[in-house]
């Protein structure tokens, strides 16, 4: 038995998958922005001089990093409503992605912050700068550029995790492909196209990260 690619079916489903890819990109971009912000907050809290804050944050980060993302998605979507926190599937999925990858990003930020020479902190203290000013104007601008490649890796990884949102019926690329396949009993074309979509967006994301990294290096070198 020989297999023939159904080009007519491909043309029919391509626009449908294209629309679904918008959902995937939205979940990726918003989820990563959330992860970047949460990760920075976690990293700063783990540098707190208050031991309870530092230890509690570390425990939360390790707990999130040590449990599967799929379980976290289910927990946010199905369990939180039991405590009065109800949200739609897309919001729940993005929140779970943000929390999960925020815990990983926090370790990246922490590595960058730990590499800042102690003299920078001492100089800020000598100049009587506030903690907020020290972080905002001195520490963060130096800590972020070196960790951009690692953050970019998590962006690509997060993008490839979005199919897990299909478990709570978010109509992203993978869920849409499964629906199309179940309707036509032709899975090869939609699944293959989804793979190509993911390959394309992953390559674009990686290229953008390299551009940002190069821009930061140029900017830093010019300074």
From TrEMBL:
Q: Where are the transmembrane segments?
A: 20-45, 57-80, 191-209
Record's CDD domains? TM_PBP2
- Which domain of life does this protein belong to? Bacteria
**Where would I find the ABC transmembrane type-1 domain in this sequence?**
21-209
Annotated localization: Cell inner membrane; Cell membrane
- Predominant subcellular localization, coarse grouping: membrane
Query: Which keywords belong to this entry?
Result: Amino-acid transport, Cell membrane, Membrane, Transmembrane, Transmembrane helix, Transport
Membrane-related topology note: Multi-pass membrane protein
The protein's matches in PANTHER family, at most eight in alphabetical order, are given as: L-CYSTINE TRANSPORT SYSTEM PERMEASE PROTEIN TCYL (PTHR30614:SF0), MEMBRANE COMPONENT OF AMINO ACID ABC TRANSPORTER (PTHR30614)
Q: Which family does it belong to?
A: Belongs to the binding-protein-dependent transport system permease family. HisMQ subfamily.
The protein here is known as Ectoine/hydroxyectoine ABC transporter permease subunit EhuD
Origin species:
Sneathiella chinensis
């Amino acid at each position: 038995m020989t297999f023939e690619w159904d080009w007519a079916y491909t043309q029919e489903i391509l626009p449908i998958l294209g629309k679904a890819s918008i959902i995937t990109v939205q979940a990726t971009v918003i989820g990563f922005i959330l992860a970047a912000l949460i990760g920075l907050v976690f990293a700063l809290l783990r540098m707190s001089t208050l031991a309870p804050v530092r230890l509690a944050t570390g425990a939360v980060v390790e707990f999130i990093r040590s449990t599967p993302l799929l379980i976290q998605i289910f927990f946010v979507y199905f369990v939180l409503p039991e405590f009065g926190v109800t949200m739609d599937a897309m919001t729940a999925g993005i929140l779970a992605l943000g929390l999960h990858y925020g815990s990983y990003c926090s370790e990246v930020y922490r590595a960058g912050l730990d590499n800042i020479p102690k003299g920078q902190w001492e100089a800020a203290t000598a100049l009587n700068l506030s903690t907020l000013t020290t972080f905002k104007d001195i520490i963060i601008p130096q800590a972020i550029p070196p960790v951009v490649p690692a953050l970019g890796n998590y962006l690509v990884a997060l993008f490839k995790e979005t199919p897990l949102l299909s478990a709570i019926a978010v109509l992203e690329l993978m869920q849409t492909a499964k629906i199309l396949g179940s309707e036509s009993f032709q899975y090869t074309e939609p699944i293959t196209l989804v793979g190509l979509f993911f390959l394309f967006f992953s390559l674009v994301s990686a290229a953008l990260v390299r551009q940002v990294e190069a821009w930061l290096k140029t900017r830093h070198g010019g300074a």
